[in-house]
Automatic annotation (TrEMBL):
The Histidine kinase/HSP90-like ATPase domain, residue ranges: 28-139
Record keywords: Kinase, Serine/threonine-protein kinase, Transferase
UniProt keyword Kinase, yes or no: yes
Record protein name field: Anti-sigma regulatory factor (Ser/Thr protein kinase)
A GO term for molecular function: protein serine/threonine kinase activity
């Protein structure tokens, strides 16, 4: 999806989906990210101050992609998969907006926090994540980074996302799905990200989606019950199918990294 003057991305978000834009792998990467975030969050009628700060935050994240993931140089040959992306969706019944920037560079380790966010005083750059953290705290939001996979292109590509999530109120109208419809939609989203093979078993007013030995999703009573490695689990309403899919993608990538260290 590309940004447009009619706020098409906002319509996707209101309908419970994830709006995605490819970012050009060149110096105008941050400018395009600012444009689509300002347009989409503005069309969602978020407070102007929050929109302005979100634009600043995504600008810092996209700049980091160009400088660090792409080495500060435009790519010589345009790839058909694995381009940087901006992704926007709502969760928690529209009570939180999530903005994510994806790149296909390898995961470098833990997310910096506290004093490690602040570069030495003599450095003239490197304060982007410190600014993202400060603005997220100001809005009582959160931010972070984790392994993920791309959403656009000719095939899913492994990489990472850096995201921020801000509490707000989005006019959110996702489709009403019963447990079988929700399980099928989750399977579709995971299949599009190259996760599988997936095994879906459907029963009377319930369904079970087996992702891999360590990840199983039960769907019943309007809720996803996700079991994860180590006995961990989480419950989400079926309207949060985009968030559930992303959590599963993240866990899948982390498990793959244990098998193939360095990924």
């Amino acid at each position: 999806m590309r940004g447009s003057s009619d706020g098409a991305g906002a319509g996707v978000v209101r309908a419970g989906g994830c709006a995605v834009w490819a970012l050009p792998p060149e110096a105008r990467c941050a400018g395009v990210a600012r444009e689509v975030v300002r347009e989409t969050l503005g069309a969602l009628r978020l407070p102007q101050g929050m929109v302005d700060d979100a634009v600043t935050m995504v600008s810092e994240l996209a700049t980091n992609v160009f400088v660090h993931a792409l080495g500060g140089r435009p790519v010589a040959v345009m790839p058909t998969a694995g381009l940087p992306e901006v992704q926007i969706y709502a969760r928690r019944q529209g009570a939180e907006i999530v903005v994510r920037v994806f790149d296909s560079a390898a995961w470098c380790g833990s997310v910096p926090s506290g004093a490690s966010l602040r570069p030495p005083p003599e450095r003239e750059s490197g304060r982007g994540l410190e600014l993202v953290n400060a603005l997220a705290v100001e809005h009582r939001g959160r931010w972070g980074a984790h392994r993920s996979r791309s959403r656009l292109g000719s095939r899913p590509v492994s990489g990472k996302v850096v995201y921020f999530a801000l509490p707000t109120a989005v006019a959110w109208c996702p489709p009403r799905r019963d447990c079988l419809e929700a399980a099928r939609e989750l399977r579709r989203l995971l299949d599009a990200r190259g996760i599988g093979p997936l095994h879906l078993a459907e029963g009377w007013r319930m369904a079970v989606l087996s992702v891999r030995a360590e990840i199983t999703v039960w769907v019943r009573d309007g809720t996803f019950f996700v079991t994860l490695p180590g006995g961990d689990g989480a419950c989400h309403p079926v309207c949060d199918v985009v968030e559930v899919a992303e959590q599963i993608v993240r866990c899948n990538e982390d498990l793959n990294a244990r098998i193939r260290p360095g990924v």
